């Protein structure tokens, strides 16, 4: 990881030194952002009250021969003890962008599933992504995979077409083939995930979409079946997901809602590192069953246009496919942009969690974020 950071710093020094450089190097841009956080949680059995370095990202991106766009991005978190939270490469891809109706991307990048997943943490609007996004798009991962920030390694095709009389495209598609193992990890079972979506844009600012996901998540290790028999080798768990999405943006107002459903078991232990014994445990989490679903709906309203906003979100997730373990968040908040590069946001969240010993608790979250 030190090598990656050294390369980024060396590139930045080269760009700012005013030295004679090739034309393609002059197209390279250094950027990034950081997010600091204070959070109070009043769980009866696990109260917490802490400042936190939520994350920081540094990225380089640029163009080669005008048609080729590339990006490399590294993320840093406060805890660097394991694969899930240590400094890591989150994006590393190149995309051919010659046509609006066909763009081809290869490398490591966001899974093309849902509207919210492709958004960066600053733009999605709330203190964290909704539960269906964190659980069903490779963030924390219901399947037991390591934290991957909604990303995987693969090849994707996407494009916009069917222009109206004003020259605005009415239809978008995206489809990709991925390893199915999350970031910075090779394929394990040689079965690829196919993920894609399509949406229509009938009026300016509106998107109505559908997404699908079919594939597997695999682990090489040992496991015990319910009948007591033991096995070892590669174990693949099939994953099937679909989502329906709607969004409307107008005059600095944001309305967005998404529903997602999953079929497929997950592993009992979360994968962290190949050297850890827990990551070689391929036992299935039968407690949650083989289904999950959830929905969220949000509104972000301008108090002062492009400056000061009020917001609210309903966020529900059922890890077992029914209401027995349902977790629901009710959130309200405000955010204020001091400049386009500095954002202050605050939220209050009431949580009702049927799967926790603390069924009802409150969270206060304050974050200061900046871009450069």
Instruction: Tell me how many strands there are.
Output: 16
* Portion in beta strands: over 45%
Mean pLDDT, to the nearest integer, reads: 90
Structural class: mainly beta
The spatial strand order of the largest sheet comes to: 1-2-3-4-5-6-7-8-9-10-11-12-13-14-15-16
Largest sheet descriptor: 16 strands, antiparallel, barrel
Termini separation: 22 Å
Radius of gyration, Cα only, in angstroms?
Answer: 21 Å
Q: Which blocks of ≥5 consecutive residues have pLDDT under 50?
A: 12-18
Helix percent band: under 10%
Shape: globular
The helix/strand series, from N terminus to C terminus, equals HEEEEEHEEEEEEEEEEE
The number of helical segments is: 2
Describe this structure in words.
It is built from two helices and 16 strands. The protein is mainly beta. The chain has a 16-stranded antiparallel β-barrel. The longest helix has 15 residues, at 2-16.
Question: Which structural traits does this protein have?
Answer:
mainly beta; 16-stranded antiparallel beta barrel; single chain; 54% strand; 2 helices; 372 residues; globular
Can you summarize this structure?
With 372 residues, the chain is mostly beta strands. The chain is 6% helix and 54% strand. A hairpin with a 3-residue loop joins strand 12 and strand 13.
């Amino acid at each position: 990881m030190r090598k990656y950071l050294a390369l980024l710093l060396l590139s930045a020094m080269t760009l700012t030194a005013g030295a004679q450089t090739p034309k393609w190097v002059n197209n390279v841009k250094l950027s990034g952002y950081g997010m600091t956080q204070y959070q109070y949680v009043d769980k009866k059995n696990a109260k917490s009250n802490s400042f936190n370095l939520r994350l920081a990202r540094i990225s380089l991106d640029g163009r080669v021969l005008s048609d080729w766009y590339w990006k490399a991005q590294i993320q840093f978190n406060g805890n660097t003890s394991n694969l899930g939270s240590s400094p890591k490469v989150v994006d590393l891809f190149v995309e051919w962008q010659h046509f609006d109706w066909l763009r081809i991307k290869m490398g490591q990048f966001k899974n093309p599933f849902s509207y919210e997943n492709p958004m960066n943490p600053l733009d999605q609007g709330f203190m964290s992504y909704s539960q269906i996004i964190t659980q069903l798009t490779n963030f924390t991962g219901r399947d037991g995979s390591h934290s991957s920030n909604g990303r995987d390694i693969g090849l994707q095709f996407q494009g916009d077409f069917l222009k109206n009389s004003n020259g605005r495209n009415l239809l978008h598609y995206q489809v990709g083939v991925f390893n199915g193992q999350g970031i910075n990890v090779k394929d394990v079972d040689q079965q690829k995930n196919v993920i894609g979506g399509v949406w229509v844009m009938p009026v300016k600012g509106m998107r109505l979409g559908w997404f699908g996901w079919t594939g597997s998540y695999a682990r090489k290790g040992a496991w015990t079946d319910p009948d007591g028999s033991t096995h070892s080798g590669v174990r693949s768990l099939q994953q099937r997901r679909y989502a329906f999405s709607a969004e409307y943006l107008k005059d600095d107002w944001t309305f967005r809602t998404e529903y997602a459903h999953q079929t497929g078991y997950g592993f009992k232990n979360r994968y962290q590192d190949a050297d850890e014994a827990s990551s070689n445990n391929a036992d299935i989490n039968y407690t949650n069953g083989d289904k999950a679903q959830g929905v969220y709906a949000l509104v972000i309203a301008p108090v002062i246009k492009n400056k000061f906003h009020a917001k609210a979100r309903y966020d529900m997730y059922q890890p077992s496919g029914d209401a027995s373990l349902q977790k629901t968040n009710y959130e309200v908040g405000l955010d204020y942009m001091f400049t386009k590069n500095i954002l202050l946001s605050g939220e209050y969240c009431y949580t009702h969690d049927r799967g926790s010993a603390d069924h009802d608790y409150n969270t206060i979250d304050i974050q200061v974020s900046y871009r450069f």
